[in-house]
Specification:
CATH class: Alpha Beta
Mean pLDDT: 80
Low-confidence stretches: 1-10
Strand content: 15-25%
Distance between the termini: 39 Å
Shape: globular
CATH topology: Rossmann fold
Largest sheet: 8 strands, mixed
Number of domains: 1
Radius of gyration: 16 Å
Number of strands: 13
CATH architecture: 3-Layer(aba) Sandwich
Number of helices: 3
């Protein structure tokens, strides 16, 4: 079977008994070169947007099954996209059309000239997430460090429904992991009951 056609049960069974590093490597291999899917924010409840002026979004990683085109947000919401300064993540107000490729990380980012903003709601990438709000990210720790520095920011993990599990094995989590308030897949939104919005 090619990675793009493997059913999720097969993917999940391959992760059983693996260390976090081994599981992340398997997930990255599975996500690479899958056709990108159209993502919709329509299934997010309206109240999620209330009180927010900037929403932090992420640019897709080249060759991965991640959102490549964010639909229009409500008119009162401005977009801010992730960018890096050294090992730190920041958000800059810009349009998706302004993103450029960070070749070191192989990901689209906001341009350095765009103004810095502090979003209060983030949509963050996830390779895998569980229903308690634990997430496995791309592996650099950028979002975990950002959320640790900004504990009042609400984060929603964005991932395909194939990669939502009930619970991670305990050995996959550590104290530096930031739990997200919800999960957004291509078909629905799950609120984390342990850390609601």
């Amino acid at each position: 079977m090619t990675p793009s056609s493997e059913p999720v049960a097969f993917v999940a069974s391959r992760l059983s008994g693996l260390s976090l590093g081994e599981a992340r490597a398997q997930l990255k291999q599975h996500l690479m070169n899958r056709p990108a899917r159209r993502w919709s924010l329509a299934c997010l409840p309206f109240e999620i947007w209330q009180g927010h002026t900037h929403v932090g979004l992420f640019g897709p990683k080249a060759g991965w099954d991640e959102p490549t085109d964010w639909p229009a947000l409500p008119p009162q919401i401005r977009t801010a996209f992730a960018s890096t300064i050294g090992h730190d993540l920041v958000f800059r107000a810009c349009a998706q059309s302004e993103l450029h490729l960070n070749t070191a990380l192989n990901v689209l980012q906001a341009p350095a000239h765009a103004p810095l903003v502090q979003p209060t709601l983030l949509l963050v990438p996830a390779l895998l997430a569980d229903c308690s709000g634990q997430r496995i990210g791309r592996g650099g720790g950028f979002y975990d460090r950002y959320l640790a520095r900004h504990p009042n920011v609400r984060a929603i993990a964005v991932l395909h429904s194939d990669y939502v599990m009930d619970r991670f094995p305990k050995e996959w989590t550590h104290s530096g992991d930031a739990r997200v308030a919800g999960l957004l897949t291509e078909t629905q939104y799950f609120c984390n009951q342990e850390k609601p919005l």
